[in-house]
Amino acid sequence: MFSPEDLQSLDRNYFSVIVADEYDVTIMSRNTGHFWYLHNPEYPEKGTIILFHKHKADDKYHLHGRGNSLGQVVRSIKSHDRFQLNGRKPVRR
Asked: Can you tell me the distance from the alpha carbon of 83 to that of 91, in angstroms, rounded to the nearest whole number?
């Protein structure tokens, strides 16, 4: 379950928040326009977040991955944005 503190921590300059409640978060990256749906069913164990992704509003979501915290999946989304903005090539640091 997402806590109120988790939901408040979403960077609203980076993301347009479409839905945010204790089990579901839907956001759009302002950098790429990609949509992300984060579902936290607390099953099979607490802290498991399922991350879905789509490129355009009309697309269907596809599974992108899983994470153990909202912060972890947000870092994954930002990493994906860097990959996209780098011409779909790995970003060298």
From this structure: 6
Token match 């990493």: residue?
79
The C-alpha atoms of residue 41 and residue 28 are separated, in whole angstroms, by 21
The number of angstroms, rounded, from the C-alpha of 73 to the middle of its chain's C-alpha atoms is: 6
Distance CA(38)–CA(16), nearest Å, equals 14
The pLDDT tens digits for 8-66 are 999 999 999 999 999 999 999 999 999 999 999 987 677 799 999 999 999 999 999 99
- Residue 62, amino acid: H
Question: What's the one-letter identity of residue 21?
Answer: D
14 within 8 A of 30, measured Cβ to Cβ: yes
pTM score, whole prediction? 0.91
Report the 10 Å Cβ neighbour count for 28: 16
